[in-house]
Amino acid sequence: MRDDTSAMVQAILAHHAATFAGFGAEPAPKPTRQEAAYLAALQACSTLGFIAHDAECLAQAWLAQSLRTGTFQPEQWPDAPEDFGLQPVPHAQAFAPCPEHLGLYAVLPDADWVGRMARAGVPTVQLRFKSDNAAAIEREVHAAVRAVQGTGALLFINDHWRTAIQAGAYGIHLGQEDLDALAPDELQALRASGLRLGVSTHGYAEMVRADAVGPSYIAMGAVFPTTLKKMATAPQGVGRLGVYARLLRHYPQVAIGGIGAEQFAPVQATGVGSIAVVRALVNAPDPEATATHLMRLMEQNSQRASR
């Protein structure tokens, strides 16, 4: 950052020194306390490994925190929603609510898997059906809706929101790119449909973007390394997940990405109310038994945390 600043200073001097020749150099003004707080936070967050737009988001929040409290507090990690510009509660723009604790959240490749896990008692299931065939997509979405009937499972459809509305699904899950691609009238149509909306996030800037539409829940990840999809960001880890959960405390939260049974306890200790799994179920020798084990594990961890 300092090298970039020096280079910009030299570029200005190279272009304009002749015009203003004859004046001696003056000492540069010291940054104001506000500027110093922002620059210190920006440099610190970059050093801590946050990518550029997340470091900038954090630095702005740290500055807002300093202005709100009247002092720069290096020991106080920003986690007040108002310092990030999040919507006040209740949200002026919001999708229909969903349970605060969605429990075990199974992300599944087709309607048959959706039915199996719903009948096994998994409380929340997602159909992530990847296809460019419109007829196949419609068939799978409608089949998934039928598959959960009578089970009590909440069904979210990944991406295919128009078909999800037609089929009568419980909700839709969108990634950041899909959310950004929605025109204002499409977003309004989706909100007016009554479907619940879940949004994937991978850091602070995306959480602020997601909050602007008032989703029903926010997913945070990838927490650990995953081979299921290429991620633009490094695994977030449990430490970051904990501060994300504090910031988004007014939302139902789903942790996702490379989470196996051995990581359930530290993930739940952050306060998230749901854990999404893919390979832990789909690749299991006995998926139904594994689902039962993971749900029991989540319940045991919750009971220990409440003692």
From TrEMBL:
Instruction: State the Pfam families in the record.
Output: TMP-TENI
Q: Which CDD domains match?
A: TMP_TenI
In this protein, which residues make up the domain named Thiamine phosphate synthase/TenI?
111-281
Q: What pathway, per the record?
A: Cofactor biosynthesis; thiamine diphosphate biosynthesis
Keyword Acetylation assigned: no
Keywords from UniProt, A to Z, are: Thiamine biosynthesis
- Is Cytoplasm tagged as a keyword? no
Q: What is this protein called?
A: Thiamine phosphate synthase
